[in-house]
Amino acid sequence: MKPMVLTGDRPTGPLHLGHYFGTLANRVRLQDVHPMYVLVADYQVITDRDLPGEIQSNITQLLLDYLAVGLDPAKVTIFQHSAIPELNQLLLPFLSLVSVAELGRNPTVKDEIAHSSQQAVSGLMFTYPVHQAADILFCKGTLVPVGKDQLPHVEVTRLVARRFNERYAEVFPLPEAMMGEQPLLKGLDGDKMSKSRGNAITLSATEDETAALIRKARTDSDRLITFDPENRPEVANLLTLAGLCLKRSPQDVADEIGDGGAASLKRLVTEAVNEFLRPIRKRRQEHTADDVRMVLREGNVRARERAVRTLDEVRAAMGF
Ligand code: TRP
Q1: Ligand 1 in contact with 130 (CB < 6 A)?
Q2: Do residues 81 and 47 touch, judged by C-beta distance below 8 A?
Q3: pLDDT (tens digit per residue) in 144-201
Q4: Which structural domains are found in the chain, ordered by start?
Q5: Which of 46, 122, 159, 217 is the most buried (most CB within 10 A)?
Q6: Nearest residue CA, atom 8 of ligand 1?
Q7: 154 lines ligand 1 (CB under 6 A)
C-alpha cells in the first residue's frame, strides 16, 4: 500500500509554536517523502461557533504560516473544504454507515460540547467527524498526522472505511493516525498553548511581542534553574521551549543558566525563540495574499479532481 498523507487545520486563528513543534515540522519533513494533502478545514469552523468569523483573513494567515514554515505547494496539495462539493456528497453515504449512538460516544465531540459557548448543540457537531472521514478517504489517505484529540476521528474514519468495504466493495484503505513524539509544549502560563488563552507565541508575532509574552511567563523564585517537570512545570516548559528552538536538551539549557534565576532564563528563551523564528518570519514577509490565492486555486483544482474520481467509485460500488 503506497502511503498517502492527509492532515489539516481549522482556520480559526494564527498558528503558534505548539503547532510548529507538534505537527508543522513533521509535515515539512513528510512532504519530501510521501505525497501529501493539507486541508484548510473551513467548513469545520462552524461546528463549535455560530459564525465563521474573519474566515477569509484567517485562511490567508494560515496559508502564510504554511508557506513561512516551508510547506512547498509544488510538493503538497493545499486545499479548502468549501471548494470541494464532493466531500459533502461523500458525507451522505458515509453517514448511513454509523449509528447515532456511535456519533454520540465520540470523546472529542463531547469535550467540544462541554467547552462550547453555543446556546444549542448543532447537528453538525455530531456529524463533522464523518465529514472528516470524507476529508481523509477522498484521497485514500493512509497516514494522518494529528494530535491526540483527533484520534477518535481517525477511529470513525476507519469504521466508515471498513463498513463501506464490507457492505459494497473494497474501495478504501484503513488510515492510521500518526502522532508527533515531542513533549507537549505548554503555554507560557502552564496551560495548554492556545491563541485564545493569550499564552501562545504565534509564528507571526514580532520580536518585541515575543519578548513581552516571555517576560510575563510564569516562573518561580528559586534562582537555581533545574529541569524538573514534576515540581517546577512552568520553568521546565520554558526550558523545553528553549531546548526545542536550540536543538539541545532542556537539562543542558538549565545547566548553562545555573543560578542565574528567572531573568536569565527568560533572556535566554527570548533569544532562542526569536533566533529560531527569524527565518520563518522572513519567509512570511516574502509572500503576498495573491500568492496565497494562487496556491489555493491550484490546490483546490487538484484536490477536486481526486475527489470526483473517488465519488465516482463510491457511486459505482453502491450501484447508483
Ligand atoms: N479536526 C481538525 C482540527 O480541529 C481539522 C481537520 C479537519 C483534520 N479534517 C481533518 C485533521 C482531516 C486531520 C485530517 O484541527
Answers
A1: no
A2: no
A3: 998 888 999 999 999 999 999 999 999 999 999 998 666 578 999 888 888 778 899 9
A4: 5-185+289-318 (3.40.50.620), 207-283 (1.10.240.10)
A5: 217
A6: 8
A7: no
141-156 pLDDT, tens per residue? 999 998 888 999 999 9
Ligand 1 midpoint to CA 9 (Å) = 5
Residue 162 has which C-alpha cell? 471498513
Q: For a substitution probing ligand 1, which of 5, 9, 149 has the most ligand atoms within 8 Å of its CB? A: 9
C-alpha cell at 261: 534565576
Top mutation candidate among 6, 10, 196 for ligand 1, by most atoms within 8 Å of CB: 10
pLDDT at residue 28 greater than cutoff 70 = yes
Residues above pLDDT 90, as percent of the chain: 89
Q: Which of 129, 139, 7 is nearest to 62 (CA)?
A: 7
Q: How far apart are the C-alpha atoms of 214 and 181, rounded to whole Å? A: 25
Q: Tell me how far the alpha carbon of residue 281 lies from the centroid of ligand 1, in angstroms.
A: 25
Phi, psi of 77 (to 5 degrees): -90, 115
Task: Give the side-chain half-sphere CA count within 13 A for 13.
Answer: 12
Would you say the CB of residue 48 lies under 6 angstroms from ligand 1?
A: no
Which residue's CA lies nearest to atom 11 of ligand 1?
8
